[in-house]
Amino acid sequence: MINNFAAIDFETANRGRNSACAVGIAIVENGKIAKKYSSLIRPPSLNFLPEFIRIHGITAEDVADAPSFEEIWPKVHQICADGLVVAHNAAFDISVLQNNIYNGDLSCLSGKYCCTCNLAKKLLPGLRNHKLGTLAKVFGLNLKHHDALSDAITCAELAMRLFRLAGPKQLEGHIKEFAEFGMSQKNSTNAVCLEISTNELGVSHIDFDTGEGDAVDVAAPDGRFDGKKFVFTGELMFLNRSEATEIVEIQGGRVIGSVSKKTDIVVVGDEVYEAYEESGKTTGKLSKAAQLNDAGGSIEIVSESDFLDMIE
């Protein structure tokens, strides 16, 4: 069983993965949370979008005198350098790491990472969703959601429980090298994150430029969405509609404007998805998809965070 690792969580000011405004880390030693670290972060731009402030409550004024990512990196690197790093929806948090390391020309991590969201989907397929809040309730964990340190602590507690449930075969494919995410060494004194990462079989991931000075790590074209029809509803937090459409099309899918029996997947903005899960509040497209499913349809309804996992 895995007893030593660091769980990490970031909050961002906007859709840019280079806009980290808070970090929380819980360090697990011998199966117990032994140390905690958290800090506000002053991003390069103090462009805090209102919808992000509503989520985490952090404003530009809060971080005006906070250290930059470059200033906290020695401490974060010391904590996470060579061991296992765990995150819930690692496609987001590791991408935040990747972009800030790249933009600051900082030393890269050389260890491994694991996504507790993906592992939970493997081990607990019967749950309605695998969001951190849902899993916290399942395991009786305390969570102050979208507080970076609270999220990191809950992620660490969740990881310990999932690692106890998982056998070696179930962990296969879930413990990944940072190099697989695009973090590789350059022939220089610093390590940077390359725009394309490879493995023995060739290109495995590409960094999709969002135009916000950062990139979203997506799998290289492999046809995973061949023939699939997507509908997007609700405000997306980390991609805009044109970017999401391009990613779907790169993978062989098609984005359509309305929900019908021919729709395969409805992607819902995280904020709307959370409201739908908690109170049933919905949008027209989401309501239509639910009605079709109630009538025997098989439309997959996923959050934007789930979509990011699908394209990783």
UniProtKB/TrEMBL annotation:
Domain BRCT, residue spans: 220-312
Domain of life: Bacteria
Record keywords: Nucleotidyltransferase, Transferase
Main EC class the enzyme belongs to: transferase
PROSITE patterns the UniProt entry points to: BRCT
Enzyme Commission number: 2.7.7.7
GO molecular function: 3'-5' exonuclease activity; DNA-directed DNA polymerase activity; nucleic acid binding
GO cellular component, one term: cytosol
Keyword check for Transferase: yes
Function description: DNA polymerase III is a complex, multichain enzyme responsible for most of the replicative synthesis in bacteria. The epsilon subunit contain the editing function and is a proofreading 3'-5' exonuclease.
Subunit structure as annotated in this protein's UniProt entry: DNA polymerase III contains a core (composed of alpha, epsilon and theta chains) that associates with a tau subunit. This core dimerizes to form the POLIII' complex. PolIII' associates with the gamma complex (composed of gamma, delta, delta', psi and chi chains) and with the beta chain to form the complete DNA polymerase III complex.
UniProt name for this protein: DNA polymerase III PolC-type
Organism of derivation: Poriferisphaera corsica
Gene behind the chain: polC
